[in-house]
């Protein structure tokens, strides 16, 4: 007969409970730190989203950034040329379904399409093995700032003043004067004009990532999607038309699918990989990885992109994030905005599905 186990002496029991207590306290402290509860002045994803919401206004159920947009669907046709640089089957063979979203920057879902000269294109590639690649691109060559703190400060400095409803020019000027890294973006934005069509734009990742090949070697890249059809018209909407982008896309798709070439740009030694304010020279090796084909569009209120969080850190094997701090900050802020938006949906009167959210 097995001898019954002896109970540990009370001192040992107390010691074990003390150890468990220390673990619980440590875990709670970690969560508190991540949430910013112990350091109120620390920048958190919530504070970033709060700043975006203050800038764009209160619009429950919408994305806190890129609030105005349209869902699109189609597929990706790989060329095979990128297979030697990435082990992902996405680039090898066979078409991959995509769910995308074309949108305007900003948190106002009722903004005029001509109010900003930037458009965005987000895509989710649904690979056959269950992996996904999610990417959010913008029609601009560089990002204005290189750190999450600077982005937060920029958002605050350019938010509308409650007294006037417009940004305070002195605050904006002071920010840009103290952040010389914004120079390339400011130089571009001075001459940028709002495009009359989503289809005519080139959209860029801006942040750098890494491709990893079958041998385990990494290759730093940025990417862009370039329209296959040259821009048409004078680039201007009809007089007084504030919602021309969605109507233009609908007309284009009625004539057939629209196509962009996915171009991967390989960094050369010394090119900045962790700073999105710095462009790479135009002579860098560029590989045509395939064609993004869009053949359908749906309203964002109930389209397939409605519940997609286009988190740029959701990547298949063969693509990896770089050390750019903006990438991780985007991921964290998108999660906060997504949870906030979905929490609002059930409380909106008269609808089970509000207009939508991306960030």
Query: What are the segments in which pLDDT stays under 50 over at least 5 consecutive residues?
Result: 1-11, 13-40, 349-359
Q: Estimate the global geometry from the Cα principal axes.
A: globular
CATH architecture of the domain at 57-140 and 192-229 and 245-345: Beta Barrel
Please state the average pLDDT score: 86
The CATH topology label of the domain at 57-140 and 192-229 and 245-345 is: Catalase HpII,  Chain A, domain 1
Q: What is the gyration radius calculated from CA atoms? A: 24 Å
- What is the H/E order? HHEEEEHHHEEEHEEEH
Q: How far is the N terminus from the C terminus?
A: 65 Å
- Our estimate of the beta-strand percent is 15-25%
β-strand number: 10
